[in-house]
Design a protein that fits this description.
single chain; alpha+beta; about 40% helix; globular
Length: about 80
């Protein structure tokens, strides 16, 4: 959940779609960061999501990026194949 004000919401969602995962940079809970990636089953709307949450000290920006890429790849390779097929 990333707080976005006004017209920036569409730009933010475009960035999330392009990246393939979303980040929570302590917007929901101070000191806590999250990375989440969607699960698609053949459509354009996600049917579920997988999230990793940790305290800020254990999830610096480089770790968040690595987790985002890892989640996206794992979902695409494993979960989608398992549930779609």
């Amino acid at each position: 959940m990333t707080s976005v004000v006004g017209g920036r919401n569409a730009t933010h969602l475009d960035q999330v779609r392009h990246r393939g995962y979303a980040l929570d940079l302590e917007e929901n809970e101070p000191g806590v960061r999250c990375v989440a990636a969607p699960l698609f089953l053949g459509g354009t709307a996600p049917v579920a999501a997988v999230s990793v949450t940790a305290i800020r000290d254990r999830m610096p920006p480089a770790r968040m990026e690595a987790l985002g890429h890892g989640l996206r790849a794992a979902i695409a390779e494993r979960l989608t194949a398992r549930f779609a097929g």
